[in-house]
Amino acid sequence: MNKIYIFCVAFVVFFVVGCGSKKYYEPTAVSGQIIFDHSFKSPIDQNNRYAATLKDSSLLTQNGIIPYTKEIPKDSRFLNESGGYYIFAKGCELLILLKSSILDSRVFDSDVCQIKETNTICTQDEIQVKNDFCAVSASIKGDLLAVVGTDNSSTLYKIPEGEVKFSQKGSSVIAVNQLVAAPLFLDTLVVFPTLDGKLLVVSIQNFEIQRNIILGGDKFFNNIIYLGGDDSRIFAATSKKLISIISGQEFSYTAELMDVFFDNRYLYALTLEGRVIQLDHTLREVNALKFPFASLEGIVIVNNHLYTYEKQGGYIIDIMLDDFSYKVYRVQDMFGKPLNNKLNFYTKNIFYYDRYYFDFSRLQ
Fold first, then answer.
1. What CATH architecture does domain 19-44+261-364 belong to?
2. CATH says 50-177 is which class?
3. Fewer CB within 10 Å, N- or C-terminus of the chain?
């Protein structure tokens, strides 16, 4: 009995001391406040890297909010906007492609609601593609739909027929990072970001595998969290490794990565240890800042300023990209309540938190 009592006391002491010893980011100076002074009627319910859905089924896209209409499929997950279509997954048996202009024309002005990419099949308002797996990310180019499944499958469909042109299932995974990348279409290739840390490069001419690039082999949180680039360069990252492929030459950078962002001239990375890193295309460090004990997420670059969010203390860090000097702002909602939890979603200009948001293009 005494042994059990001693063990319990020791456990409680360890637990309390352990919890009490956790350290948080404390800025040396706070330059002011940023108020998330715009809000939606409904909070964000689901999100991924590319899109989000509010609890009232309205959509958050890279261009803004689309209020719920009857055209938006009920009980579906909004995956992405690509190739002139909004892509939805209904359960694990159907993909629904809804022509972007149907929803855009009701909300955005004319320069936004144009079809984003030239697409010969955009005459169809809605396309349904049957599938036998749960889709987690997807992209469209022309008459091809590339999908990554939760079973670590990579599938390429010809639309609108729904014909499978390529399919391969990778090894099973146990857990994934929420930032799941979508397939990347190049001129004659499609790059599938797998959930087990690989890039599967497939020809869209003969639908054969051209290359299999391995970033890591862990079964926990090893999915590709970022994938971007063009025909001359590809950038991809897991939570532990960033790679750059330029004209067939591969470069790599190892770190505990929280997020990655490519802004034409440079790549920017946030790390688990609170670093903000600027890298060139060969992944050489150009500039870096460390914010001790900071838990950073979200990258917005506007007017040569990089903004990131420190979630435990509720701060916005504003980094001037000319010289990598910075300022720190405390964040609160429109009622004066501190924001000190996880961001729900971000786009090229905006951070979204629950039902509140802030557009950084307003600062300049």
1. Beta Barrel (2.40)
2. mainly beta
3. N
